[in-house]
């Protein structure tokens, strides 16, 4: 899901409500896991050194299985041309694709 809109219009609030509602309604089924709403930001995904980001991304995705992976302000992941996260973003895309049946990804743009 994507939530788009101008600053201050309540996108984050609505995304949190929708994510928690999906969990409460049982819309996400992954019986071995406790249903979680995992809100992540850039600092949870991007490491300080090249090569350390992919494991951080995988850890956050793993925590979200059976629940909701809420990426607040997704645009902040890449901070300009020299930012190394662009290379590691493939990890997040692959995890989202490979595990799409087991969790929901909410993101704000």
UniProtKB/TrEMBL annotation:
Keyword Repeat: no
InterPro entries in the cross-refs: ATPase_AAA_core (IPR003959), CbxX/CfxQ (IPR000641), CbxX/CfxQ_RuBisCO_ESX (IPR050773), P-loop_NTPase (IPR027417)
Keyword Transport: no
Domain of life of the native organism: Eukaryota
SUPFAM superfamilies: P-loop containing nucleoside triphosphate hydrolases
Residue stretches making up the ATPase AAA-type core domain: 3-101
Entry keyword set: ATP-binding, Nucleotide-binding
Pfam families (UniProt xref): AAA
GO molecular function annotations of the record: ATP binding; ATP hydrolysis activity
UniProt family annotation: Belongs to the CbxX/CfxQ family.
Protein name: Stage V sporulation protein K
